[in-house]
Amino acid sequence: MSAKLIPSVCPYCAVGCGFYIVVEKGKAIGIEYMTEHPTCEGALCPKGNAVLEFLNHEERLKYPLKRAGDTFVRISWDEALDLVAEGLSRNLKKHGPKSLGFLASSRCNNEENYLMQKLARMLGSPNVDNCARLCHSPTVVGLGAVFGAGAMTNNLIDLQNSKCIFAIGTNFTEAHPIVTRWVQRAKDRGAKVIVADPRITSTSWMADMHLRIKPGSDIDLLRGMMKVIIDEGLADQKFISQRTDGYQELLQNLRGFSVHEAAELTGVSADQIVKAARIYAKSPASALLYSMGITQHVCGTDNVKLCATLALVSGQIGRPGSGVWPMRGQNNVQGNCDMGGMAEFYPGYKRASDPKSAEFFESAWGASGLPLGPGLTSTEMTDAALEGTIKALYIIGEDPVICDPNIKKTTAALENLDFLVVQEIFMTATAKMADVVLPAAAWAEKDGSYTSMERRVQWIDQAVSPVGEARDGLWIINEIGKRLGLDLKGTSATEILKEINRYVPAYGGMTKERISRIGGLRWPCPDETHPGTDILHCERFATADGKAKMASVLNVPPAEMTSPEYPILLSTGRIVVHYNSGSMTRRSPSLLERDPELYVEINPEDAASLKVRHGDVVKVKTVRGETEAVARITGKVKPGIVFMPFHWQGTNIITSDALDPVSKIPEYKMAACRIEAKS
User: Fold this and answer.
1) pLDDT digits (tens, 9 = 90+) for 585-641
2) What per-residue string of b and e applies to 581-595 under the rule 16 or more CB within 10 Å gives b?
3) Does residue 95 lie in a domain region?
4) Mean pLDDT score, 523-530
5) Are the beta carbons of 292 and 303 closer than 8 angstroms?
6) Strand 568-573 versus strand 641-645 pairing type
7) Are residues 219 and 289 in the same domain?
8) Whole-angstrom Cα distance, residue 468 to residue 333?
């Protein structure tokens, strides 16, 4: 039997790279590069190249399990599904629908996430959320408030048309390596690259200007740049008057603020701020890229709003090479939000607080009594579980015991639940706390569609069978629904996509046939004659009146300040060979060999005063606890600042769980700590 090449999409970050899985005798034995894929042109990052190492890993969950004391025993699917239905039903009857919480998975396809939120809401619970809460909820809320749509305005290929690329709070060369090829292509064509980041990174290496701002001073920098642009007559007054509201309020906000004040607040010289502002505003096409260095703050939503406002002031939106480009993390976090996997929204971003949204889906689903929201976010569900108001939690493909901040609090919250069910591909730290563990099919073992950070929706067919008795998430959710008396009306991804086509307007024309073609389509694509949309907001914004709403904000200090007891500022982020909780990459031998253990970057000046040498194991302590890490002595971080990757459980023992009041994202990027040599 000859090998088959099955088209697929990478299950790691949200770039959405394509490749072929080589299948022989029902087994995935290799990958082939998809040179015709428009986004990656055949290139893959280290994680993409190693993707089969976790797919075929011996530790994949193969059978349903139930807790038996401190261990688990194998059970049948019927028993597992009955236990799940009983656990949810028991709490539903005793404590009401708001006692149930649901976490959808941004690693799962659109169809699974659509069905998951449908299950939650048909049970009467508004409490459904996903990992966007921890990374890009400020994008959904912030860009939504300014532009009317919380998504990337342009597309990755279009970066090659930019003449200025301003990257703030994103280390895309490590977090989204394939983006680098398009930035480099622009640079080869004469584009200027400006990077604002406290650390020296591989992204800053390719910059023409590196603005080493003080952590948490992003708003001060953005206000400083806007002040320069306005005072020097570089603002696009025609664009502002015709397509925006709020400019006079912005002028009032900036009155009395100076570039010298911005310099003092950011640690970047006034000359550099002026130069960066001029380059960005004068460029015929400027792109603004950001990621979690912008979003993961108590002012994350305001940070995003001001990134969008900078683009508006300069008229840098709605054209090739311009716009605002959130660098999103998980392979389907955009799609999960589109499908209504958020506390604030039903599918298609219909506001959960609007009775018309509930009425619409009651008619669409043949349901009654759908809940109004917003429901509890994932971070709020943790608090509610601690308080005893959330009693049961159904988690798919997320690992809060590693990913949440202050995970001692998260662990205590999960321990306080009456019932926890986890649907996973590995026995994660969170799965180990469950009452029932459901083995799920991985991405290559099921059909479905995925939406990348550039709004590109792509369909993949099942390449191989699930391992052991693992099952497609759609089958699992449907079977649970049946046992709870619900007909979710969708047993296949194809059927559910048709329902999505009907009820999510931006996906109206994204039929299976159309998005199965290499590269798929970008939303909005309202009907089957529509070619998809490369660039948003070309003529009008997605607001009620078609105008963008400029934001006027002031910086908000971090929730936690350094002190004599905790004199060092801790920040966290991604590294190139690992991914999120590490449940997949730390099971990949070729990736784990590169970075096998948790480390902390320490400036040489701090290391000398602490008497810490390169390679020493140190304790990193905050008010929440302590963890151990290997010291890496490097000038990449400034004195008084340390950096840790978040792919190991130890990091989030000590991170801050202070929340942005609007998007409820935790402030992962700012925690006061101290370093001690291990005795």
Assistant:
1) 888 999 999 999 999 999 999 999 999 999 999 999 999 999 999 999 999 999 999
2) bbbbbbbbeebbeeb
3) yes
4) 97
5) no
6) parallel
7) yes
8) 28
